[in-house]
Amino acid sequence: MRTAGIDIGSITAKAAIVEDGKILGTKIIFTGYNAEAAGLKVYEDLLSESGLTTSSVSKIVSTGYGRNSVKFSDKTFTEIMAHAAGAYFLNSKIRTIIDIGGQDSKAMALDERGKVKNFVMNDKCAAGTGRFLEVMARALEVNLDEFGAMSLQSKQPSKISSLCTVFAESEVISLIARGEKRQDIIAGIHESIAARVSSMLARVGVSEPVMITGGVARNAGVVDALTRKLGVKIAVSSYAQVNGAIGAAVLASSL
Amino acid sequence: MNSSNSDFLKTLGIYLFGQAKKFSLRFKKAPTMKELMMVYYSEAKSAKLTGKKVAWITSGGPVEPLIAMDIIPIYPENHGAMIGASKMGAGLCEKAEAMGYSNDLCSYARSDIACATVNGGPIGGLPRPDMLVCCNNICGTVLKWYEVQARYFNVPLFILDTPFCHTGYSEEAARYVRAQIDEYILFIEETCKKKYDFERLRQVGHLSYEGQQLWQAVLDTAAHRPAPMSAFDAFYHLALIVTLRGTKEAVNYYQQLLSTMKDRVARGISVVPNEKYRLLWDNIPIWPRTRWLSQKFASHNACLVADTYTSAWCGAMKYIDESKFLDSMAEAYTRIYLNIGVDEMAKMVIEMIDKYDVDGFVLHSNRSCKPYSFGQLDIQRIVEKERGIPCLMIEADMVDDRSFSESQISTRIDAFMEIIKERKKI
Description:
The complex is a heterodimer of chains A (255) and B (426). By secondary structure, chain A is α/β, with parallel strands linked by helices. Chain A contains eight helices and ten strands. Helices cover 40% and strands 22% of the residues of chain A. In chain A, helix 3 runs parallel beside helix 5 (165-177) and helix 6 (182-204) crosses helix 7 (220-230). Chain B is of the alpha/beta class and 426 residues long. Chain B has two domains: 3-197, 3-Layer(aba) Sandwich (Rossmann fold), CATH 3.40.50.11890; 202-425, Rossmann fold. The longest helix of chain B is centred in the first third of the chain and has 23 residues, at 3-25. Chain B is globular and about 70 Å long.
């Protein structure tokens, strides 16, 4: 059975097609201001890139913030369910998921069947999310993709004490003014994210193996800071950013 | 026409309207909540005309001694809830912030303080108080809040200090609170310049107890499957047990409501059309969003069958002994839900989980209400351990809708319901 998953996040829209336990293809585009159009576009692009037709896909599930804007999906699930299904599909041993997306971060505890036992989401504040990193990248005039590698060079991460994105930005600006090294500031930013995410994880309880999903998983600096903070190994899949879409496709196969 | 004349005419208008309404209600079988509240506020607003005194009192304060002396009690917190429900909270909170109050301060306090200066809000401000009665059994904020208002209106303030009861109720605490009740009676006598009427207090105490029993009985009907009413209905019907506790009106109203609910139970009428999942709510409602939340849960066939908030006005009933009303009242007011230890609170939550047979626990982490929200995580953990049901924490505020993030809360509720549905499948 061939199924598709569409994950409309606050920054990017993702699509994945899955068939009999295999991933046929994935696609990521920017969501922009029109979530409905982004959902359609990412799906159509993926179909044409994979040489597939609409009729060859039997079921579609949408997820993410824009899940209800995807009019052509058969069912919607929250990204919490989708990430759990995706992680279980990629590695059925995973018991804890850290998902850091564009505007929220969450921690999920899974049971042995891959079902969500409990979850915690960040509150209204966007600190410790992808959007937070984007704001910091702008303040530091560094391409976000270089954040990971740069922070790994740091020997002495700066202290970022503020939890608020806006205040943290002014804190970063004052660190720049004080002449602190860029890599130290970036490493400090990553540590502040790790601190925030670990307190969420403490609420659901950490049980190994732990996997990180969502766009921020691409940032090796955040993963490194989290690994040190939690003292556990964190699995990063090459599909981390599209994990929600994969999970949605997996959920579609059991409709 | 000068302004004092126009004020007089306005008050007279309000008074006549209230009297006419009251008269018309005599011929009606069961007045509605709206009508009763209308009469209540118009009587309070025209108190100057009728020579009655008005006392502002905290929601958990002992109101019976006031009612027995014909003093009209006014609840700034009930007013805060009305402000929140009419979505006027953010505007008044902004006004208070412009006056210099921090946005970390309770939104009931902020909206009340702001409202007093502009006579705004859904009913054009509260009637001016002749005295203030503040009981700190619900929180510490009320102390400063009432001091601010006492200065603003230049009226006497009585503070009833109820020590926190981690577990039991000590001999010392009992003596300490009881002594203050005597001071309270003296305060009322001095402010009203009248001898206290203890016989009338006995009658009011009886009505208060009867009202609380009826309110508990109304809430109990939701233990039935399917529930004839939800916590959202309780949030609405609560107003009288708060404001008119100790009066015949409240007793009559809840007698009528109880028979309506019993009738619904007998006929199997449920408030949520296809009730499949039953939930327990913790903390003060998110007043500007009760309708949205009620529809959101109903869309998942979930009914909030009980809550820790509305039951707080009858939760300490077990301590009341009508034959020793003043002594037992002191204990009952001291041992309310917000003035006991976390373990005791968790015990009450677990009793409710069992009694109402719920599938999940929704906790509103209320930015405004620190004593209610502090300790919620521990209560959640105790519930998860003892009963193993899914728990959901949502961050918002009871009045200030600037603290409500719809899409985030929507996702959390959807995910929470997905977990509950998955569990119920097994």
